[in-house]
Amino acid sequence: MAPTKDTPFRSADMSMVQLYISNEIGREVVNALGELGLVQFRDLNGDLSAFQRAYTKDIRRLDNVERQLRYFHSQMDKAGIPLRKLDLDVETLAPPTTTEIDELAERCQGLEQRVSSLNESYETLKKREVELTEWRWVLREAGGFFDRAHGSVEEIRASIDNDDAPLLQDIEHNNGAADVERSFSGMNIGFVAGVIARDRVAAFERILWRTLRGNLYMNQAEIPEPLIDPSTNEPVAKNVFVIFAHGKEILAKIRKISESMGAEVYNVDENSDLRRDQVHEVNARLNDVQNVLRNTQQTLEAELTQISRALSAWVVLIGKEKAVYSTLNLFSYDGARRTLIAEGWCPKHDLPLIRSTLQDVTNRAGLSVPTIINEIRTNKKPPTYLKTNKFTEAFQTIVNAYGTATYQEVNPAIPVIVTFPFLFAVMFGDFGHAIIMLCASLAMIYWEKPLKKVTFELFAMVYYGRYIALVMAVFSVYTGLIYNDVFSKSMTLFSSQWEWDVPEGWTEGDTLVGKLKDPNYRYPFGLDWRWHGTENDLLFSNSYKMKMSIILGWAHMTYSLCFSYINARHFKKPIDIWGNFVPGMIFFQAIFGYLVVCIIYKWSVDWFAIGQQPPGLLNMLIYMFLQPGFIDIPLYSGQAAVQKFLLFFAVLQVPILLFLKPFYLRWEHNRARAKGYRGIGERSRVSALDEDDEGHGANGRPSGESDEGVGMIAQGVDHEDEEHEEFEFGEVMIHQVIHTIEFCLNCVSHTASYLRLWALSLAHQQLSAVLWSMTMGPALKNGKGIGGAIFLVVIFAAFFCLSCIILIIMEGVSAMLHSLRLAWVESFSKFAEFGGWPFAPFSFGTLLEENEELKEYLG
Amino acid sequence: MANGWSIFIGLAIILAMCTAAWVFAPKGENQVLWRSSLILAFVSCYLMWAITFLAQLHPLIEPRRSDIRKEFVHH
């Protein structure tokens, strides 16, 4: 019964396996399995908290290394050193040994110390440099003040003596009176000089003014170049200030205020000679500091450059190592035998591969104890593992976005691969737009490798769906040909079935009516181009597209419904066939199948030849329900009887749908009970041991001495997520009632829902016609001479851009969403259960792909 | 050349193509994928063509327009 291989048709056969790994090679085994990415381990230590687990210590240590690596990265960012990204497609990292990891950890430790000490000294030096620079500025600017102020001592004194004098009179106007060289100290005037951030100057001034009640004389100058704040590395504009005041206390107060305002106060000598010496000294020291600073920076940069070459690889290695230890934490440890016991899910058909991998690891380690892998029987629900390839991946993703298929049910992505793009194309049908889309998707596939690296999110999304786009474009080319639309114009590929019936005395402007050229010739492929631009074009195409929507919808839903038959057969549930599939199918076909037959029949009859009036099918369907047996305009003879029968037959299915399955299940359950069987789900065999260790299974830790060769498994955890299905008639009945109501109503509403195919294709066609008539149409009509040609080029550019943006991208997205809905709702509701849980194997590949933090290190 | 029988001729062609798709689908685990996708694609395309063809087989209305220029009347 089981197929020899896993196919994309259903999820892979899974088996629960138990691994016995010698403690010494636990890490290597997990490493190898992580590279393989085929086993999903179960947590066997559910009762232990994260801190109690065996390998938490190692994880902590690796966390520390990771932190150090992040520190290096941030330092590199600060120093502007580019990171060499790791391209995993080109380079492969050999699995590291424990000693290598230890060495790496030690090396990181050493490097961190070195980098941080370098950093520290760099920062101190930088601070020193800034201080010295500031001091130099203060000396320079304050010197200027002094030189000017010496000339105006008289003035200042006058202002002190004379209460009426303005307090802050500008000195510039009064420097004429510079004749007396007198010291400030003689006047008992002291001063404070320093540097303050420019944005604080105003507040500083105000505070000083208020606290000292105006007993000060403040002078300031802007430092033209911004100074770097060493703590934040940001440039700050600063001012030099010199404040004169008299009285020691006031000066002390000023100092305090300056400090509290974040100003730096520097020592400036009053004497100009001493000041000159100071300037020289400061310059010399600044030079020294700058030299040392340059050296330190160079060393630091060299160190970081060295690190930057290997940083990505280290981050990846440590990330993997951490994942390995986290996985090892899931294992249970048998102290007596010094073995690790692991349990997990893996695809049955990949077991040989896993076995040989394990064998390899054991051989390489030179261990005599082999790693044992056992398949164990369980009635736990296996995870759904749907293998994908480059082509199916995106399709599978849009299915998985809706839900995870039940284990082994028909993979809903199988029909989606064709139906989703096809229904899209029915809505998007325009040859021109489709060709552009086709080119885009082919380009994405041709330059697959280089484009993979593009990280722009919107593009990455389109790129991910490039194969969907390809199939959609191919189908759109086809439907565009069928609709005979290329940028809203038509193509005259074949000779038309119509010709204009020109009456005698016809003049231009009179209405012309078409007539068939040849009763035996019909336009062979797609819509006749003669319809294009006619007055009753929409009348014809609407009727055609509406009917097409119904037929395609019917086909899609019937096809989907058939999968429920395949599912029921696969799961060996005949009652699902007789209680759900068959009555459902009859119900659907008796109403909508009949409608489709009528549509096709009506098309195939030449109503004018037989001289009858063609019936309206919509009215026919409405009367079929409202007045069974009443025929408005007959479609065929015996119609009333057929319709009455079909309606009766359809209604008859409702009670079958409603009652057959629940009552059958109850009967089956009761029969089994009578014979003394227990229900299937009542005792669940969670894992290998349950059966053998019933006696001491309650404590969840049976001894490992079981003679069957099965180990010990923690059971307590598993019982919580396991549902024991006790048969309850009421529940089954309610479920079936809901299913019946839903199914019957959905038959109607879903069929109507397919009319969106018509609506969207109409909208697309009309929109592109409007675009043409607003851009290219007038440009082609009115363009004359060279101006017309240039105008035409400009208009064409506009037409092309608008076509791409509105008609391809916007309309395409909208058609895609509608098609997606048709797949998710109208199709999946007919067969898919979506009751599975996804298979998430322990794999380095997915780990590296999904980890956001690692992403920046990978090229 | 193209009349009511075309539907059946088209059907025959499509059936032949489906058979070919079934037989010549590349072997391997993706065989089922090839078969189902190709056949489904052929059938969908046929269905659409057939619907379009049938809709024009016995038309109930004729095209009508009044902006035809003299040169194109018999075109």
Question: What's the SSE blueprint?
Answer:
The complex is a heterodimer of chains A (859) and B (75).
Chain A: E1 14-22, H1 26-36, E2 40-41, H2 56-79, H3 98-150, H4 153-161, E3 189-197, H5 201-212, E4 217-222, E5 227-229, E6 234-236, E7 238-246, H6 248-260, E8 264-266, H7 272-328, E9 332-334, E10 339-347, H8 351-365, E11 372-376, H9 392-400, H10 413-428, H11 431-446, H12 448-452, H13 457-464, H14 466-483, E12 498-501, E13 512-516, H15 537-570, H16 574-604, H17 617-626, H18 639-674, H19 716-721, H20 729-753, H21 755-774, H22 776-782, H23 785-831, H24 844-850, H25 852-855
Antiparallel strand pairs in A: 1-10, 1-11, 2-10, 3-7, 3-8, 4-7, 5-6, 9-10, 12-13
Helix pairs in contact in A: 1-7, 1-8, 2-3, 2-7, 3-7, 5-6, 10-14, 10-21, 10-23, 11-14, 11-23, 15-16, 15-20, 15-21, 15-23, 16-18, 16-20, 18-20, 20-23, 21-23, 22-23
Chain B: H1 6-24, H2 31-55, E1 64-65
Helix pairs in contact in B: 1-2
What does this structure look like?
The complex is a heterodimer of chains A (859) and B (75). Chain A has helices spanning 26-36, 56-79, 98-150, 153-161, 201-212, 248-260, 272-328, 351-365, 392-400, 413-428, 431-446, 448-452, 457-464, 466-483, 537-570, 574-604, 617-626, 639-674, 716-721, 729-753, 755-774, 776-782, 785-831, 844-850, 852-855; strands at 14-22, 40-41, 189-197, 217-222, 227-229, 234-236, 238-246, 264-266, 332-334, 339-347, 372-376, 498-501, 512-516. Chain A has 3 domains: 14-113 and 298-376, no CATH class; 127-175 and 182-281, Alpha-Beta Plaits; 392-490 and 532-672 and 733-829, no CATH class. In chain A, the strands form 4 sheets. In chain A, strands 1, 2, 9, 10 and 11 form a 5-stranded antiparallel beta sheet that branches. Chain A is built from 25 helices and 13 strands. Chain A is extended and about 125 Å long. Chain A starts with 13 loop residues before the first strand and ends with a helix. Residues 170-182, 679-686 and 688-723 of chain A have low confidence and may be disordered. With 859 residues, chain A is of the alpha+beta class. With 75 residues, chain B is mostly helical. Chain B has one domain. Helices cover 59% and strands 3% of the residues of chain B. Chain B has 2 helices and 1 strand. Chain B has helices spanning 6-24, 31-55, and one strand spanning 64-65. The model of chain B has no long low-confidence stretch (mean pLDDT 91). The interface between A and B is large, with 69 and 41 residues.
